[in-house]
TrEMBL record:
This is NADH:flavin oxidoreductase. PANTHER family: BINDING OXIDOREDUCTASE, PUTATIVE (AFU_ORTHOLOGUE AFUA_2G08260)-RELATED. Keywords: Flavoprotein, Oxidoreductase. One of its GO terms (molecular function) is oxidoreductase activity. Residues 6-337 form the NADH:flavin oxidoreductase/NADH oxidase N-terminal domain. InterPro entries: Aldolase_TIM, NADH_flavin_oxidoreductase, OxRdtase_FMN_N.
Amino acid sequence: MFDSEFSSIEFAGMKLANRFALAPMTRVSAQANGRANELMVDHYKRYAEGGFSLIITEGIYPDQDASQGYENQPGLADALQVESWVPVIKAVHGAGAKIIAQLMHAGAQMQYNRFDKQPLGVTAQKPVGKPLGLYGDQEAWLEPKVMDESDFERVLNGFLHGIRGAVEAGFDGVELHGANGYLLNEILSTHFNTRDDKWGGEMQRRAQFVIDVVKAAREMVADDFVLGIRLSQITITDPDYQWPEGEEGFNWLVQALAEAGIDYIHTTDNDANRPALKDGARSLAEVVRDAGIPLIVNGGIDGTNYAKMAAHYPGALLALGKAALADPQFVKKVEDGDKPDALDFAMLQPIANVENEMRWRAEQED
Ligand SMILES: Cc1cc2nc3c(=O)[nH]c(=O)nc-3n(C[C@H](O)[C@H](O)[C@H](O)COP(=O)(O)O)c2cc1C
């Protein structure tokens, strides 16, 4: 039979039931000590049961340093945090899906850090706009400490520490968060990275640290442990930023990441298909697709356009954020020809935690 987006697929070495992935979404619902809990087991399990064949977790902090960015964010930084993910992974695997841990260093976007660290920045540049009320109530961005040589080393080791924790917990892989204005993204961005030492300059130089992390991670983990990266130009508060190097620079970056051993590249944009780069007509996802690198595409995919997107990006996974939030049963419903629920942002108020969502859902049933 003709393969559709609902057919099983081999992606980056994983056998998946279909081409639908849950996009990473911060839900600030862990214990204050960063351990995953029962609420999170049920939360992730419902997406696996709803038909998503790959679950990408919310951004998880990998170390006990400056990587944590939000209160009640989960970690993979200590043994009990690692252990706390085991029931989540078991539940997702039990429902037939795979699960990848997104590892995130908050960088200058830190809104809360229980180790009482100052944000770490590639320079002292603060993000544009204001912190997100969705994740807590900080009024203004804090001044970042500028990374020195030892900070680069500590951040790299922090990522490796988190990856070891992810392996031990039983995740199928990790995704490095290089998107949306968090530290790895800031290092790639000329809004933040205006350094004039070896870590700054043109794309080839700005990307060196990210490539170093990928290489070190690849050397450390087994071949069948999936190592992905998420990339964007936009940040959580800046929808307009573009790398100055355009398509050529981005194409160089994706090839360099592939050579460094990345298994997939996950692009995110407000609209996955928009011409994204300073010059040229291609979207970020189209550049990765055309480079022949396993692609997860994200941005604006919903019940009306998923089939077109699947055809436009052959062999790629479609990652859904808001459409999945709106309806954890999305995949099952669209496969059956039913209309998925629409998103009501009220479910994420006053902050985007699972408890508020559950309260909102219960109110809808009353
Ligand atoms: C509540 C919420 C939390 C998010 N948290 C993360 C995150 O932890 N890591 C990440 O890479 N993206 C995060 N995102 C971005 C989504 O993964 C996705 O890229 C974005 O919503 C656009 O895709 P969509 O149009 O399918 O929603 C978050 C989005 C939302 C709505």
